[in-house]
Write a structure and sequence with these properties.
Blueprint (H helix, E strand, L loop, with lengths): L1 H15 L3 H15 L5 E3 L2 H8 L5 H12 L3 E3 L6 E4 L7
Antiparallel strand pairs: 1-3, 2-3
Amino acid sequence: MKQEKKICIDLLKYFYMISKSSIKVFEYIEKECIKQNKKTFVFNVYDAMKFTGYKTPKPIYGGLNGLMDHGIISKGPKGSHLWILNPSSNFK
């Protein structure tokens, strides 16, 4: 399982040239939804800050934007805290 996670993160870095904050945020998302085999998730900024070690939400939002820019995640319905993992991504 650790080997699969390392390969997944390495692929993100290589193929998408994703920022460090995006990688950390993706690791949080992986912990929260991918292991539970979910394609949607509620994102808690404060839990993500605790998980990543960031002291402010700014790098968390930057990480989310980076993941959205690369089509890995998208926002759910307007006004909700729901996010969607891109169904064409194979990060299981």
